[in-house]
């Protein structure tokens, strides 16, 4: 009997990947290729864009390589990809302009205005989600104000996976995970007319794709089959987008896992908790993702900070990633009194609070401070941020961890100690693509053993000897944050940013 195989595609921000899994969830082959980001495109400060046609051609290459390496033809294709941003396409799903990435910061002043006007508050009350400069509504409104003729040429303002799905199948659709933020109406299955009205986008509602739950299902058309080197008619599913897809791939997004959480230590720091109610109370921050199942939500706090903050410090110090493990051994817990607020993203912060002017800060420096202390301070600062996010998101159950940062056992120990809970290491590789396959199979009625596919690869237990130290350190971190936030919005801070925000 021929071996069963399933193809998962993950069109990420910096890498397009294809993974072939067998029926037990083992990876038969994984291929990936880096793709560039276009900064300050068209001379626009803060612009971060991507070339959809390049992504699509890269996708075809990695799929063909993965299939050749696996030596087996997949029986289905499941797509996931980066969320947010604004991906404009015509009726043939061809890009009408470069996509605005979720990293795009040109709409920062617009978000500032929405915050002052109470729009962010109202949108959060509708959908359980808020907005930052790279959010779809902010990007779409910026285009509406600055490039209305571009929107007039478009048929769809969707997401990366939606355009890929459209080109592969000819179907215009999105799934509930993307649709629920920020235009969601709170049901998980519809758009909010109130949100569209308050953001001044009611006249662009026609650009939002139909929502199909739990995920859109189609078949490879001839052009899609030629691109991927597969047979026309092969089943294709789209969604959820990469963050909730990782929740499925890590085993925390399924019914019966309410309260469980996922931590993704990647370029951003993704913190997500499975809830059975939509949260619309409290300070607007993060977002709530519909799973496509009634009364099942993923309360997400995707901090803009993550390994990118650590990469920045390593570059400034002139050292490599291998120094992280050594530094965490050399510098004791507490980093000899050095603390860091790691909010280094150019577009500010979106979770567990929203501030387009959020900035980083290092305190506690002395003549005795060593390089290893700075590295540990960043690692601890990110762990404190994760704890802050999970406190806001209401975690009550286990935490599964995934992402590139899991390669450092010493850093994972820091996270376990600060969070004070065992960290279960998600089954690798390609947690997002794995989740897309599982979600797609469930939608098509194909039975796969979810427990087997998502069984963790190991557990890191917290060290109880560090509990008191990190409890005190977390309180201190929150005090530093409380003191710093008013300073981000002073006249001097705005002047330093060139009054662009």
From TrEMBL:
Keyword annotations from UniProtKB, A to Z: Kinase, Transferase
Domain of life of the source: Bacteria
Cross-referenced InterPro entries: ATPase_NBD (IPR043129), Carb_kinase_FGGY (IPR000577), FGGY_C (IPR018485), FGGY_Carb_Kinase (IPR050406), FGGY_N (IPR018484)
PANTHER family: L-XYLULOSE_3-KETO-L-GULONATE KINASE (PTHR43095:SF3), SUGAR KINASE (PTHR43095)
GO molecular function, one term: kinase activity
GO biological process, one term: carbohydrate metabolic process
Residue ranges constituting the Carbohydrate kinase FGGY C-terminal domain according to the UniProt record: 263-443
Similarity-based family: Belongs to the FGGY kinase family.
Carbohydrate kinase FGGY N-terminal domain mapped to chain residues: 6-242
Entry protein name: Carbohydrate kinase
């Amino acid at each position: 009997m021929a071996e069963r195989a399933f193809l998962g595609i993950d069109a990420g921000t910096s890498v397009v990947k294809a993974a072939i899994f067998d029926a037990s969830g083992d990876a038969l082959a994984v291929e990936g290729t880096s793709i560039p980001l276009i900064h300050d495109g068209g001379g626009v400060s803060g612009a971060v864009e991507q070339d959809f046609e390049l992504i699509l051609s890269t996708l075809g290459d990695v799929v063909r390589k993965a299939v050749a390496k696996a030596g087996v033809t997949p029986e289905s294709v499941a797509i996931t990809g980066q969320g947010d941003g604004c991906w404009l396409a015509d009726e043939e799903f061809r890009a009408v302009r470069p996509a605005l990435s979720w990293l795009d910061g040109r709409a920062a002043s617009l978000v500032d205005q929405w915050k002052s006007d109470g729009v962010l508050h109202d949108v959060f009350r509708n959908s359980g989600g808020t907005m930052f400069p790279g959010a779809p509504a902010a990007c779409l409104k910026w285009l509406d104000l600055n490039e209305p003729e571009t929107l007039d040429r478009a048929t769809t303002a969707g997401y990366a996976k939606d355009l890929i799905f459209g080109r592969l199948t000819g179907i215009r659709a999105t799934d509930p995970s993307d649709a629920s933020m920020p235009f969601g109406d709170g049901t998980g299955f519809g758009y909010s007319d109130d949100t569209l009205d308050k953001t001044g986008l009611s006249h662009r509602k026609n650009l939002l794709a139909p929502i199909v739950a739990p995920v859109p299902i189609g078949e490879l058309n001839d052009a899609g089959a030629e691109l991927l080197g597969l047979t026309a008619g092969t089943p294709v599913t789209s969604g959820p987008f990469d963050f909730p897809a990782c929740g499925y791939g890590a085993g925390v997004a399924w019914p019966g896992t309410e309260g469980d959480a996922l931590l993704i230590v990647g370029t951003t720091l993704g913190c997500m908790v499975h809830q059975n109610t939509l949260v619309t109370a409290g300070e607007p921050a993060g977002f709530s993702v519909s799973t496509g199942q009634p009364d099942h939500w993923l309360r997400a706090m995707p901090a803009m900070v993550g390994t990118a903050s650590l990469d920045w410090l390593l570059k400034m110090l002139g050292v490599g990633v291998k120094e992280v493990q050594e530094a965490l051994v050399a510098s004791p817990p507490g980093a000899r009194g050095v603390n860091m607020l790691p909010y280094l993203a150019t577009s500010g912060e979106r979770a567990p609070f929203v501030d387009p002017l959020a900035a980083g800060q290092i305190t506690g420096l002395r003549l005795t401070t060593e390089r290893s202390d700075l590295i540990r301070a960043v690692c601890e600062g990110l762990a404190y941020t994760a704890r802050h996010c999970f406190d806001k998101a209401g975690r009550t159950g286990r935490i599964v961890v995934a992402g590139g940062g899991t390669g450092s056992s010493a850093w994972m120990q820091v996270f376990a100690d600060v969070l004070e809970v065992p960290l279960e290491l998600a089954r690798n590789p390609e947690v997002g693509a794995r989740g897309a396959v599982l979600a797609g199979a469930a939608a098509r009625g194909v039975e796969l053993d979810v427990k087997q596919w998502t069984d963790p690869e190991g557990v890191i237990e917290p060290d109880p000897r560090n509990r008191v130290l990190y409890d005190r350190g977390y309180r201190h971190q929150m005090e530093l944050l409380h003191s710093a936030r008013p300073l981000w919005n002073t006249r001097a801070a705005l002047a330093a940013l060139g009054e662009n925000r």
